[in-house]
Amino acid sequence: MKSAIEVVRHHSSVMRSQDINIILDDFSSDAIVITNLLEEPVVGHDDIKKLIDAEVHKRNEKKDVPHSEILLQKDYGSYVLHVFKNEQRNILGIETFVVENEKIIFESSYITKLNK
Q1: Which of 8, 17, 25, 62 sits at a 20 to 30 Å CA gap from 100?
Q2: Between vectors from CA 104 to CA 102 and to CA 105, what angle results, nearest 5°?
């Protein structure tokens, strides 16, 4: 069985693929995502798929954007902290995950502009 941090590392790597169905497969069917980018939480595969689709679309509009640099991944049992930056997109992201049965059941995400 994969550990929580292995699930999040896999999730990070498949985000680069931009394959919505592969990315979505990392989440439980009733997963919850809370982010500062949206007014309301995103709940379940249908809404998470829309969120992923919007992110993939945004990335495709900016061709040749390099992948984000992972600054920190730290875990404690089912909980994972994931921090990344992307200097070309000028963003810093701080995400927490809760993983059960090799699926992400909860993600919180805070994305902000890098100070330059």
Answers
A1: 17
A2: 115
pLDDT tens by residue, 36-74:
989 999 999 999 999 988 877 776 666 656 678 899 999
Q: Is 1 helix (H, G, I), strand (E, B) or coil?
A: coil
Model pTM? 0.89
Which of 57-85 are b and which e, b meaning 16 or more Cβ less than 10 Å from the residue's Cβ?
eebeeeeeeeebeeeebebeeeebebbbe
CB 103 within 8 A of CB 31: yes
**Architecture field, domain 4-113:** Roll (3.10)
